[in-house]
Design a protein that fits this description.
The chain is built from six helices and five strands. It is of the alpha+beta class and 178 residues long. The longest helix is centred in the last third of the chain and has 16 residues, at 115-130.
Length: 178
């Protein structure tokens, strides 16, 4: 059993799997925009600097457990997992400083909150894609049975025009490996 295969599929969904229409028109309508989110192996995008930070995205299964007590004589295993998606955001002043140096005070005050509406729109887009079965598919091991939102969207202001979105999802997995 490999959770890495499940993570790879869920990263592909966030990166725009199905946006080309290859999985049908309904999946295409719910797919994330390709290239909008840059997935990273860093579990916490807030550690990234400069322009690499804005929309840097981590997609990680952070927890797994058996749904029912495991019968060692049976190959079927139902599991529950928790998927965590984290996205970094930089408002205009933070991006301006990367390119041009220090932004003036008025520019910082005007643009400091601009990342928050974008973050909520992104949370909806990612939720719509990850919860659509045709995008997650059933050809991973373990099989991804269902992805459902878990809790609220968490928005954390990191200061200096930077922020972090954290969104969790519950995974229902079925494994038939011995």
């Amino acid at each position: 059993m490999t959770i890495a295969q499940v993570e790879a599929r869920l990263r592909a969904v966030v990166e725009g799997r199905g946006a080309d229409g290859s999985l049908g028109p309904a999946a295409q309508a719910r797919a994330c925009v390709p290239g909008r989110y840059r997935t990273t192996d860093t579990p916490d995008p807030s550690t990234l600097d400069g322009s690499a930070f804005d929309r840097a995205t981590s997609v990680n299964v952070i927890e797994t457990s058996d749904l029912i007590p495991r019968n060692v004589q049976c190959n079927e295993r139902q599991m529950r997992g928790v998927l965590e998606v984290r996205i970094g955001y930089a408002a205009a002043p933070a991006l301006y400083e990367v390119v041009h140096g220090e932004a003036n005070q008025a520019a910082q005050q005007t643009a400091a909150g601009n990342w928050i509406p974008r973050c909520h729109d992104d949370a909806r887009e990612i939720e719509r894609a990850l919860t659509w079965y045709e995008l997650t598919g059933s050809d991973t091991t373990p099989v991804i049975e269902r992805v459902t939102p878990l809790g609220d969207t968490i928005v954390t202001e990191l200061g200096n025009g930077r922020g972090l979105l954290t969104r969790r999802f519950e995974l229902w997995l079925e494994d038939t490996q011995p």
